Amino acid sequence: MVARVVIAAPGSGHGKTTIAAGLMAALRARGIDVSGHKVGPDFIDPSYHALATGRPPRNLDPFLQSEELLVPLLLHGAGELAVIEGVMGLFDGALGTEGFASTAHVARLLDAPVVLVVDASAASRSVAATVLGFATYDPRVRLAGVILNKLGSQRHEDEIRAALAPTGIPVLGALRRTDDIHAPSRHLGLVPVAERAAESQRLLPKLAAWISEGVDLEAVVRVARGASRLSGQPWSPGVSWDGPRKVVAAAAGEAFTFRYTETVELLAAHGVDVVDLDPLRDKALPEGCAGLYFGGGFPEVHVEELSANVPLREEIAAAVHSGMPVVAECAGLLYLCRELDGQPMVGVLDAVARMTKRGALGYRRAVTPQPHLLGEAGDRVTGHEFHRTEVLPRHGKTPAWEWDGKAEGFATPTLHASYLHVHWAGHPSLARRFADAVHRHG
Against a cut of 0.70, is the pTM above it? Predict the structure, then answer.
C-alpha cells in the first residue's frame, strides 16, 4: 500500500514547491519513509525533493511516459508515503488537449487525493470561492483539503477559515509570510540545488520547522493513507544483464543538473554503469569510459568556466571523433557546439549556440528522419523542449529528430545531440540502443 497525496495550486507562484519539499522534510523528520514525485518534465523542483527525502527524484508525466506507466512508475519509486507535487494550475495540461498531462489528470490516474495550496496574500473571503471552484470543477478529482499560504495575520486567517467553513473543505495548514525561506529564481525557474547545495542544506531544517508549525501533519498523513490500494506491478527496466559491464560518463555538477533517474536505472540494467563527470572541474574522463551522456542544465550560466577547462574539452572531442557513443540533450547539445555565447566549447558539432530573449517550451511528438544512434527511420517519440538558446545551424546533415515539419539536432551512427528531452522509461529502446553502442565501442 502506497499512501499518497498530490500538492496542487490554482496556478504557478502559490508556493507548491516550497510547501511540497517542506512536507517531505517534515514527514521524514518524523520517521516516515517519504518519496518525492513531480508532475511533468521539470528537473529543478525534483532536486529539492531529493534533498528533502534523501531519495532519487522522480517524475510522473502521461505525455512522456504514457498513461499506462504512471502507476507502475509510482510503485517503483515510492516510499511509505509519496508526496506528488503538481505543475502549474491544477487543471493546466498540454494546450489543446482538455488538460492532458495536467496535475488533475495525474491525480485521477493515480486515484490520489489533492491538497490545494493557495496564496492568500491578496485576498480573504474570495479564497473560499476559489477553493470551492476547484473542488467542484471536475468531480473525478478529490480535493481533500487546503493549505493557506502567505497569510498576513491571525485576523486574515480567521476570515478565510470562516468563509471556507460552509464549503466543508478542511483547512490542513495556515502559513504566515516569511522572508527566511526563499529559493532564488532565474530565466528557467528556481536555481537547482546543485548550484546552492550548502545553502539549501542549511535551509532544510527551517523549512521543516515552518511546515511542522503551520500544517497539521497528522491530517495530511491521514489524507494520504486514505487513498485506495493501487493495482499493478512496479515498473522495471525489464532486462537482467550478466555480461561484462561498461562505464558511461554523465555530465553532472553545477552546469549539468538535469537527468531522469530512470535513465540511469535503464542503463544499469543493460550493463552500463553511469559515473558522474563535472565538466567545470574534472580534467579527464573516468578510467574505462566507453560512452558519454550529457543531459540538461545551465551551461550558459557557467560558460566561461566550461570553456576554461581545456583539457577535458579536448579529451571529449578526441573521444567523440574516435567513435565513442555520445547522447546530448539540450545543455549537452550546447556544450558540444563550436562555441556558446562566444566562448569555445567542445567543438564536435559544426554549429554555434547563443542565449536569446525568447524561449522554446512545450511537449513535442518527434520522428526519426534517418537511421542514427538512437533509432531507425520512422521511430516516434514524445519529448519536451525548454530553453532560451538557439543553435545555428539548427540541424546537421542527419537531423536528430523532426517535429512540426521542422528538422532539429545532429545525429550520426555514434552521436545524438538535440534540444529534446525524452524520458527513456517511456521509450526504453533508446537506452537499449545506446547501451549496445557502448558495449560495441568498449
Answer: yes
